[in-house]
Each structure stands twice: as structure tokens, then as C-alpha cells.
């Protein structure tokens, strides 16, 4: 049974004063800080600590309470569910915010799969279609489509992986090959794995009353050369989910589909006139709470099991679960 809204809000208000914004654990090895994850590498293993940072429009916006726990648990669920279809780098989950994985060499391209004509950012397929583009990442698009309608079939729209603070760039397969980012063999292997994962994700989500609209996958190469799934999979950060039961009703009304993912924050900011450039508008506390509640609802709906958060302040808890000495502070 899903957690009731009053309980969710109580959890989130308790967690709000103790966000996991950043980490500093040099004992874990060399650190790389992404938009959401702090990654440490040592002895052929990667420790991925999923913080509560939230990003949109290629900017870090702030923190959502318990978001890191939700993303980490969602990824662990999907990686176990798809391991026989597509191998991944997961070894263990020693803490609600932490994943231990095999260290891989990341491929320099994100594999984005889209099944619907939607989005609000400048990299979205709808943004380009609404401005007259009828080809996107090498795919011809039919005339007459409306926003949020399904594409004739899911398409792969790869993207560069911008450095922190930069903008991703959508590219076709040929553009990726021409730039020397990947070989044809590696691209096609990763593309096949991405489409296999998306097909599985669509089927599973349909059983839970959801539409998996679009998502991104990242792949890396194991020391032996095998290409495997890394980072995250089918989380509210990397994917867009709509409620199947209300989709047709919302479309008939000309309204946006009901969703639970970070599109809620994107829409709020877009409504304030913010699309990634300039100063960030002030985001009220209630918006953070509502967005965080949607993340938890997404996890519970996807997995079919209740969410049990750890509400301890994360600093000492992380040190304990990672076997590190207590903080001297």
C-alpha cells in the first residue's frame, strides 16, 4: 500500500534540515563530483554516493529531501531486475544513498530513448518540433503531431555528456561517428542494449499503470572490454513517467499529462520564465516538498513496495555504513 501523503510530508519536513548536499571522504579514493552523484574510485571499485542535489536545464537547483535515497533504491531495483538482459556494474548497496560498483570507463555519449513528442527544455524533441524541425538526431518525424502524442515507434536520440555547468548536445549516430566519439561497433552495441532496457521498462511500467515516456542510459566499459550499464536506470531523474489511467483524459483537455518526475520542477520554473539562463527564481518550500513527495510516489509505484526512509542525519550514517572513521567534527 502506498505511503499516505501526511506521512510523506512528515518525513520530508524532518529530512529537510539535513540534506545530503555534498560529501568529503578522501579515504574512498579520487573524487569526481557530478550534478547529482559524488563518485570515488579506488582499487578497481567506484563508490557512488547519490546526493539530494536536483538538476534541471543543466543546472543544479538545490536539494530535495530524501531524493538521493529514492534514486539509489530505484536504480538498485532496476539493475537487479534487468541484470540478465543487460549486464551492469552494481556490486552492492551498503547504505540508502550508496552504491558500490565495478570501476568502468564511461562511454562519452548518453543514450536517450524517446517514445513521445514532449519536453520543455531546449534539448527536448518537442522544442525542436514546435519550431519546425522534422528531423531529430537523424530520425524523420511525421507532420501533424501534437505535443505529448506518441511517436510512431521509440527512437534513440543520443546526447553528448556536457561537463558540469555545460549543455548537452543531441546528435545523430552519424554525427557521433564523424566526431570520433564512438566506433560504429560500440555505438550499435550500446544502442541495442538501450532499446532492450527501454522495452523492458515500458512493459514493467505498464503493469504498474505507468507510461515510460523517455529516459537516458549511460554505459561504460569493464576492464575486460565488455560494455555494461552504469550510473542509474529508470529513476525520476533520468526518466519521464506518466499515469496511464489519466493520459487520454488529459490529452482531450489539452492539459499536460499527470507525471511524477522532475518535470514538476521544470514546469514550475518554466512558468516563472526560467529556461536555464539567468538567475534562478526563488522556489518556495512547498514546491520542494511536493516535488520530493512525487519522487517517493514514483519509487513506490514502480517497485510495488513501500518506501522506508532513513531519517538519520546522513554524514555520520554514511561513515558508519562505509566503514570509515567517525568525523572529528
Task: Explain this structure.
The chain is of the alpha+beta class and 329 residues long. It has helices at residues 5-15, 67-82, 125-130, 173-178, 184-207, 244-253, 263-271, 285-303, 314-321; strands at 30-33, 37-42, 45-50, 53-56, 59-63, 90-95, 98-102, 105-106, 109-116, 135-136, 139-140, 150-156, 159-160, 210-221, 227-230, 239-243. The protein has a single domain (5-321), classed as 2-Layer Sandwich (D-amino Acid Aminotransferase, Chain A, domain 1), CATH 3.30.470. Helix content is 33%, strand content 24%. The strands form four sheets. Strands 8, 9, 12, 13, 14, 15 and 16 form a seven-stranded antiparallel beta sheet that branches. A five-stranded antiparallel beta sheet has the order 1-2-3-7-6. Helix 2 packs parallel to helix 8 (285-303). The longest helix has 24 residues, at 184-207.
Brief overview:
The protein is an alpha+beta fold and 329 residues long. The protein is built from nine helices and 16 strands.
Amino acid at each position: 500500500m502506498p505511503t499516505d501523503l501526511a506521512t510523506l510530508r512528515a518525513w520530508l519536513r524532518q529530512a529537510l534540515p539535513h540534506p545530503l548536499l555534498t560529501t568529503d571522504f578522501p579515504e574512498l579514493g579520487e573524487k569526481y563530483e557530478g550534478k547529482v552523484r559524488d563518485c570515488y574510485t579506488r582499487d578497481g571499485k567506484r563508490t557512488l554516493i547519490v546526493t539530494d542535489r536536483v538538476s534541471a536545464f543543466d543546472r543544479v537547483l538545490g536539494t530535495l529531501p530524501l531524493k538521493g535515497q529514492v534514486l539509489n533504491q530505484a536504480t538498485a531495483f532496476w539493475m537487479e531486475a534487468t541484470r540478465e538482459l543487460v549486464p551492469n556494474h552494481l556490486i552492492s548497496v551498503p547504505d540508502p544513498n550508496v552504491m558500490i560498483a565495478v570501476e568502468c570507463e564511461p562511454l562519452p555519449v548518453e543514450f536517450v530513448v524517446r517514445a513521445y513528442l514532449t519536453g520543455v527544455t531546449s534539448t527536448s524533441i518537442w522544442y525542436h518540433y514546435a519550431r519546425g524541425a522534422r528531423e531529430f538526431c537523424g530520425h524523420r518525424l511525421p507532420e501533424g503531431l501534437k505535443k505529448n502524442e506518441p511517436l510512431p515507434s521509440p527512437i534513440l536520440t543520443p546526447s553528448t555528456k556536457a561537463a558540469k555547468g555545460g549543455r548537452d548536445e543531441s546528435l545523430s549516430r552519424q554525427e557521433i561517428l564523424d566526431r570520433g566519439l564512438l566506433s560504429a561497433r560500440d555505438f550499435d552495441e550500446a544502442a541495442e542494449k538501450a532499446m532492450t532496457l527501454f522495452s523492458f521498462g515500458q512493459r514493467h511500467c505498464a503493469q504498474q499503470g505507468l507510461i515510460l515516456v523517455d529516459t537516458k542510459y549511460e554505459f561504460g566499459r569493464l576492464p575486460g572490454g565488455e560494455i555494461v550499464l552504469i550510473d542509474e536506470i529508470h529513476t525520476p531523474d533520468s526518466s519521464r513517467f506518466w499515469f496511464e489511467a489519466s493520459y487520454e483524459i488529459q490529452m482531450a483537455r489539452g492539459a499536460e499529462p499527470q507525471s511524477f518526475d522532475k518535470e514538476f520542477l521544470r514546469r514550475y520554473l518554466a512558468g516563472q520564465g526560467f529556461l536555464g539562463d539567468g538567475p534562478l527564481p526563488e522556489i518556495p518550500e512547498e514546491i520542494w516538498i511536493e516535488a520530493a513527495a512525487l519522487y517517493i510516489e514514483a519509487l513506490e509505484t514502480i517497485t510495488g513496495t513501500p518506501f522506508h526512509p532513513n531519517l538519520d542525519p546522513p554524514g555520520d550514517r554514511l561513515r558508519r555504513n562505509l566503514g570509515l572513521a567517525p568525523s572529528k567534527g
